[in-house]
């Protein structure tokens, strides 16, 4: 594998009309989850992702497994477990593309993960371990699994990529901050939103966030700013990259996961830090123009076309 990620996947119940959840009578079943979205994004962009997880031994779990495998994600380390139901969440989507999430992920199948599910040989051949703050927010046990995965990745020389992705519906800010601060010294690449940076470090000028995270030992810091683009630092140079304007904004969910996949895949392909920022911006802009958690994640050639690097013939 080029990159390994671990985390819970969910059935995403997508509303068939915009507006308040209570007024929507119909939903479409889709697959979602921050880490799964990231893995799918990487696969479409031409790098090899592996995913470590557990799914309920039910039809929803089998659907997610088949979907991930069909997208080119390695699922040899995903197992079905009895006694747990595959997690579900419902989406509320408004006319401006913003949304709310309503989670039903108690008793997550990932609680059945153990250290024996993390094989040294699987990590030994990879280059990056990507983790987010979503998985450890589900259960205390998952925090221990993330810490073990990080330790194993470090042992085998993998870079650690981390997106805080703070979900305050899942844990308190105090819990989130304590856990994130505990793993930041092991993080090589931090991919955070501006709002999350403020949550973790307090209100300060944008460039101070970069310096603040570097003080933890993070080598590469990226702050995602949505429509304002992204800013990043590799400890030597600060890069401020403008956003790539989307065709339209219809659904913002998954844009951050797409950005992460764009940035990591670009680095794995040998691109510079600045090139990776620009590429990731383009991926994020393409995700928001399509409804769904991962439906808008583009293929590599499509991003090249948006950046003017490749001409595509439509008809």
Description:
The chain is an alpha/beta fold and about 325 residues long. The protein has a single domain (about 5, about 35-80, about 115-305), classed as UDP-N-acetylmuramoyl-L-alanine:D-glutamate ligase (3-Layer(aba) Sandwich). It contains eleven helices and 13 strands. The strands form two sheets. Strands 5-4-1-8-9-10-11-12-13 form a nine-stranded mixed β-sheet, with helices on both faces. The longest helix has 16 residues, at about 140-155. It is globular and about 50 Å long. Belongs to the carbohydrate kinase PfkB family. It comes from Listeria grandensis. It holds the Pfam family PfkB. InterPro entries: Carboh/pur_kinase_PfkB_CS, PfkB_Carbo_kinase, PfkB_dom, Ribo/fructo_kinase, Ribokinase-like.
Write the layout of secondary structure elements.
Layout: E1 3-6, E2 10-15, E3 27-32, H1 34-44, E4 49-56, H2 59-70, E5 74-81, E6 87-93, E7 99-104, H3 120-124, E8 128-132, H4 134-138, H5 140-155, E9 159-163, H6 173-183, E10 189-193, H7 194-201, H8 206-214, E11 220-224, E12 230-233, E13 238-241, H9 255-268, H10 273-287, H11 300-306
Helix pairs in contact: 1-9, 7-8, 9-10
Compact summary:
By secondary structure, the chain is an alpha/beta fold.
Largest beta-sheet characterization: 9 strands, mixed
Query: What does the radius of gyration come to?
Result: 18 Å
CATH fold name: UDP-N-acetylmuramoyl-L-alanine:D-glutamate ligase
CATH homologous superfamily placement: Ribokinase
Assembly state: single chain
What is the CATH top level name? Alpha Beta
* Overall strand count: 13
Separation, N- and C-terminal Cα atoms: 36 Å
Count of discrete alpha- or pi-helical segments spanning 4 or more residues: 11
Architecture per CATH nomenclature, i.e. the level-2 architecture: 3-Layer(aba) Sandwich
Give the overall silhouette.
Answer: globular
Order of strands, main sheet, comes to: 5-4-1-8-9-10-11-12-13
Coarse structural class: alpha/beta
Q: Helical residue percent?
A: 25-40%
Q: Percent of residues in beta strands?
A: 15-25%
How would you state the average pLDDT, rounded? 93
């Amino acid at each position: 594998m080029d990159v390994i990620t671990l985390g819970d996947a969910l059935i995403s119940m997508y509303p068939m009309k915009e507006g308040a959840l209570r007024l929507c009578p119909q939903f479409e079943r889709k697959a979602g989850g921050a880490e799964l979205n990231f893995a799918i994004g990487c696969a479409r962009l031409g790098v090899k992702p592996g995913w470590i997880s557990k799914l309920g031994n039910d039809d929803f779990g089998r659907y997610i497994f088949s979907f991930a495998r069909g997208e080119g994600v390695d699922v040899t380390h995903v197992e079905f477990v009895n006694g747990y139901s595959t997690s579900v969440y419902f989406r509320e989507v408004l006319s401006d593309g913003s949304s709310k999430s309503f989670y039903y992920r108690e008793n997550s199948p990932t609680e059945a993960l153990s250290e024996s599910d993390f094989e040294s040989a699987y990590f030994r051949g990879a280059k990056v371990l990507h983790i987010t703050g979503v998985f450890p927010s589900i259960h205390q046990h998952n925090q221990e699994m993330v810490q073990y995965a990080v330790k194993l990745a470090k042992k085998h020389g993998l870079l650690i990529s981390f997106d805080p992705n703070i979900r305050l519906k899942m844990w308190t800010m105090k819990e989130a901050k304590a856990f994130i601060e505990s793993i930041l010294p092991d993080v090589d690449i931090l991919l955070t939103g501006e709002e999350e940076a403020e949550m973790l470090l307090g209100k300060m000028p944008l460039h101070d966030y970069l310096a603040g995270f570097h003080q933890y030992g993070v080598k590469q810091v990226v702050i995602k700013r949505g429509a304002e683009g992204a800013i990043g630092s590799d400890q030597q140079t600060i890069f401020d990259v403008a956003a790539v304007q989307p065709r339209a904004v219809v659904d913002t969910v998954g844009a951050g996961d797409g950005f992460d996949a764009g940035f990591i895949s670009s680095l794995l392909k040998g691109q510079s830090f600045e090139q990776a920022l620009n590429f990731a911006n383009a991926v994020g802009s393409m995700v928001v123009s399509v409804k769904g958690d991962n439906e808008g994640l583009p293929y590599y050639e499509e991003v090249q076309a948006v950046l003017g690097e490749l001409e595509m013939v439509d008809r």
